[in-house]
């Protein structure tokens, strides 16, 4: 349901903590901001890593069970030690070569654009994460916090 | 009377900037412009260029043209009334 004031809103759930899956919510939210939409992202389960100070710049690409990698790696090779680091290194080199924005930059755009960035309380309890471990400008909330926000959203996606 | 000539007063150079910075650049410029003003946007990011038509519809502006030369894309946007025209 659209809001009464006519401003559009996007509500996203970021549930994955890999480098590749951190991009869609941040690109969508920052693009929404460029269109003067309201944007909110609920970071839950492994998605919480995207807003962890210690993890944000060290998210990885899985080398296992990922047949869509541009250079296909058989699972038996992907399981070897160091393959995750290698897949991550390759992805980071492509990101650099294609001049794609970095995750910290995109997160900055979201924050400066007034996006609501909500860390999932339940996940934090479950995984023993403290609020101090999260980057600045994050609010901690629960499922109802997100649902209330999403109930007035025009676009709502689970990523 | 000859044809009406309008100088391009508003220009934003987003060459080398990745998505979504060109869109944010356009947004910042358009916020300072008045309806009917023309904005010239230079960009090299393909994704941003492809997004521009939808972006303009959603933000109530008009994409007049978008051309590429020597790897640089130039989009010309006319500031509209701000009403989403994607209906």
Keywords:
heterodimer, A: 159 residues, alpha/beta, Hypothetical Protein Ychn, Chain: A, five-stranded parallel sheet, 38% helix, B: 87 residues, alpha+beta, Translation Initiation Factor IF3, four-stranded mixed sheet, 2 helices, 4 strands, globular
Percentage of β-strand residues of chain B: 25-35%
Using the 3D structure, state the CATH architecture of chain B: 2-Layer Sandwich
Beta fraction of the residues of chain A? 15-25%
Radius of gyration of chain B: 13 Å
Major beta sheet of chain B, specifics? 4 strands, mixed
Structural topology:
The complex is a heterodimer of chains A (159) and B (87).
Chain A: E1 9-14, H1 19-34, E2 38-43, H2 75-78, H3 83-97, H4 103-112, E3 116-120, H5 121-127, E4 139-141, H6 143-150, E5 155-158
Parallel strand pairs in A: 1-2, 1-5, 2-3, 3-4
Chain B: E1 10-14, H1 21-32, E2 38-43, H2 46-59, E3 62-69, E4 72-78
Parallel strand pairs in B: 1-2
Antiparallel strand pairs in B: 2-4, 3-4
């Amino acid at each position: 349901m659209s809001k009464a004031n006519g401003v559009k809103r996007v509500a996203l759930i970021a549930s994955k903590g890999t480098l590749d899956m951190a991009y869609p919510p941040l690109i969508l939210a920052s693009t929404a901001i460029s269109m003067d939409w309201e944007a909110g992202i609920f970071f839950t389960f492994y998605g919480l890593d995207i807003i962890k100070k210690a993890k944000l710049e060290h998210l990885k690409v899985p080398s296992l069970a990922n047949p869509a990698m541009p250079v296909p790696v058989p699972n038996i090779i992907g399981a070897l030690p160091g393959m995750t680091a290698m897949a991550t290194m390759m992805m980071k080199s492509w990101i650099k070569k294609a001049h794609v924005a970095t995750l910290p930059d995109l997160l900055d755009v979201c924050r400066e654009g007034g996006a609501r960035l909500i860390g999932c309380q339940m996940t934090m309890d479950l995984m023993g994460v403290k609020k101090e471990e999260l980057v600045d400008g994050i609010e901690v909330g629960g499922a109802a916090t997100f649902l209330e926000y999403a109930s007035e959203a025009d676009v709502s996606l689970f990523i | 009377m000859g044809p009406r000539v309008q100088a391009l007063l508003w220009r934003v150079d987003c060459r080398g900037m990745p998505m979504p910075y060109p869109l944010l650049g356009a947004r910042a410029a358009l916020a300072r412009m008045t309806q009917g003003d023309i904005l010239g946007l230079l960009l090299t990011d393909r994704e941003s260029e492809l997004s521009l038509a939808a972006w303009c519809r959603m933000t109530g502006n008009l994409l007049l043209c978008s051309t590429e030369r020597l790897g640089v894309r130039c989009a010309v946007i006319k500031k509209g009334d701000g009403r989403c025209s994607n209906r």
